[in-house]
Design brief:
mainly alpha, globular
């Protein structure tokens, strides 16, 4: 895995360098917008702007359900506050948000939106887990085979440890790693 991943990092280096230009700007802006101290003031416009590629400069399709997600901003702010509340473990926070019928559930607020928001607020602690990164992790042979009864929160906790390990091992930020894995996953 290591040698193959090293080669893939070298191949995607140009894209990683391009993404670095935007990393500070995007995380600087949206890290403040989504910070738990500011969630109560988060506007619908600011939330929706994050979902647009020209603003986030990283994720192209997360705006698909934006208007549905932001329909009830009170509920969305409540869900985001729960997502970012470090007093609870990440597994419990995510599981409280992704299962329909739970009090903090917001239709359309999926891993493709939740995990980038985690990265915005804590860019060295949380990686992105979406279809692109999942495909990349599978291609390099480090994605676990999860059983049927494994919740999304449990999956993310495991995947995030893998992402943190890869970032450290290859000396890349979680933002850069997301770029690399997305490229690898769909080459």
């Amino acid at each position: 895995m290591e040698k193959a991943f090293d080669e893939k990092i070298k191949k995607t280096r140009r894209e990683v360098i391009a993404s670095q230009k935007h990393q500070k700007q995007v995380i600087g802006r949206y890290g403040k917008s989504f910070h738990p101290d500011n969630i109560g003031k988060l506007s619908k416009e600011e939330f929706l702007s994050f979902l647009v590629y020209k603003n986030n400069k990283h994720w192209k399709s997360i705006n698909r359900w934006g208007t549905r997600v932001a329909k009830d901003m009170v509920q969305l702010r409540k869900a985001l506050y729960m997502l970012l509340n470090e007093e609870q473990g990440i597994k419990n926070r995510l599981d409280a948000l992704v299962f329909e019928g739970r009090s903090n559930y917001v239709k359309g607020l999926s891993r493709a939106v939740l995990t980038p928001i985690l990265m915005m607020v804590s860019p060295t602690k949380y990686g992105v887990y979406n279809k692109r990164s999942e495909a990349g992790l599978k291609k390099i042979g480090v994605h676990p085979n999860f059983g049927k009864n494994v919740s999304f929160g449990e999956k993310y906790a495991i995947i995030n440890k893998i992402l943190l390990g890869l970032g450290k091992k290859y000396n890349v930020s979680l933002w850069e790693l997301d770029t690399i894995l997305g490229k690898i996953g769909f080459e």
